[in-house]
């Protein structure tokens, strides 16, 4: 009669199986990864159901208010204005970045002298830190800055226009700043997509006499559809987090609340006024809204795989 196996022998035996080897090799990193990802998210959910403020004691002793902060969100007009403003700025900026990036991808997909060097130069803006870009554009949009100087030279008279002190021009300045820095990202993804297209349909179209526009419109563009969707979704989600540019260019949402984005408003509520429970409730509601908007596109991309 054989003796029963000890727990040590059972562990050693399990570690020799494929499941055991997988857990031994990948288990620790998965535990660390999930702890890093899950803890802030669970803490956000916990705080969203409380009215916790740092001055009221430790966060684990926060008063549970059963989500009473959520109804306040509906009547928070300033919040919804910042949501609308953020989506407007993100939509305008990402739309322009897509058009410019696609134009650049079409031009740079052709062979010409100096293409590699120009591509490297074109990608430089996205490697700058956003805070540096924001500071540079803050100087450029000053009343006596380079932007007004160039416009003045073009129209033949001195221009001293307060770009950052008026609502509409300040929004335009923020969109221009975002487009300048992130068009290269769109260009990079779309150029990579153009180079990865299969050549046989394109060559076949050339043989039957299709023009360059017809090849682009009816062959290249449909084949780029998934790459375009991925690029738009990634950039749109990033643009919704806009914080650095309005924080520096317009002092955190000025003039008045004209350039106050969602991130700026959440920062004011959570950090400046210390209402972290309410700020967490706002974050949760907006997370749900963004998921609802992004999910149809994600499902469409997954269905096409």
The description of the largest β-sheet is: none
Q: Helix count?
A: 14
Distance between the termini: 56 Å
Q: How many β strands by DSSP? A: 0
Envelope shape? flat
What's the mean pLDDT score?
88
pLDDT under 50 segments (min length 5)? none
As a whole number of angstroms, the C-alpha radius of gyration is: 26 Å
Helical residue percent? over 70%
SSE order, one letter for each helix or strand? HHHHHHHHHHHHHH
Strand content: under 5%
Alpha-beta content class: mainly alpha
Summarize the structure.
It is built from 14 helices and no strands.
Architecture overview:
With 305 residues, this protein is an all-alpha fold. Helices cover 72% and strands 0% of the residues. It contains 14 helices and no strands. The chain has helices at residues 7-15, 18-48, 69-74, 77-108, 115-123, 130-140, 146-155, 167-195, 199-207, 212-223, 225-239, 244-249, 262-272, 276-304. Helix 2 (18-48) crosses helix 14 (276-304), helix 4 (77-108) crosses helix 8 and helix 9 runs antiparallel to helix 10. It is flat, with a radius of gyration of 26 Å. The termini are far apart.
